[in-house]
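Project standup — Tuesday

K.O.: blocked on the structure for the chain from last sprint. Re-posting the sequence here as requested.
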Amino acid sequence: MNFASYNIRGRSSFGIVVGDGIVDLRPRFAPRYSGLIDVLRAGVLDEVKAAAAGVRPDFPLKEAELLPPVPGGEKILCIGVNYANRGAELTSAGGNEDAKYPSMFFKPPNALVAHGQPILRPPESEQLEYEGEIALVIGKTMRRVSKNDALAGVCGITLCNEGTIRDWIRHGRFNVTQGKSWDASGSIGPWMTTDVDLTKPLRITCKINGEVTQDDTTASMIFGFADILSYVSTFMTLKPGDIVATGTPIKLNQAPGERKWLKAGDVFEMTVPEVGTLRNEVQDEK
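H.V.: unblocked you, prediction finished:
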């Protein structure tokens, strides 16, 4: 099932995307649950699924303004340089294949817009870069979870363009926070898809203006989904609604060290067949 959060007819709500329509869930579950984050924290996702089974959509999908799939989660975690051979692409990063542990950083919610909303290139830099990633949505509280049990704590996945302002990555000597935190520099969505088999490779295909610029599967990840969750939960409690972006494949059609920055008018599209397509147009920030 595809769970979406959205604005519709002057109100915020959440529901299930069925074909070209949406089964609106907030009217059916209010006041108990006013958003998808409430459903996840209450641990009643299966109850909601059952209640919506076989229900006809309440309105067309095109009438809704989509929001990030799970607004209100506590944290967004990102894994860096997590696909084989990506070290050669990032001249400042070096290889990561022999790393013992994942590289990590936080991302603020305001850095990611929803599907269909504009990504903004700031006037301070021309180096706006896209990074297509599968993001895990946490459905259960996890602390010191084993690799064998880690995937059971994931309630769904979504798509993330983990946007970066590349020349701000090293403004500080030891951190990347500045380059990863610009308002509306990336995107997430279009919805959260449940019941995806995370033990099998998932294909990520990204396009800029229709040209394929990333095309790989999660089989190329250095640290797999279970590895990441087990490691992170060792020192941090993962909570329902948390997002974990798991890394981006190498870029295609560019020489080592070359960069193709996004500019106003460019259209970013990321597709994972099990989920759908995340699409955003780039605009210059006014």
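K.O.: great, moving the ticket to review. The two ends are 38 Å apart (CA to CA). The chain has a mean pLDDT of 94.
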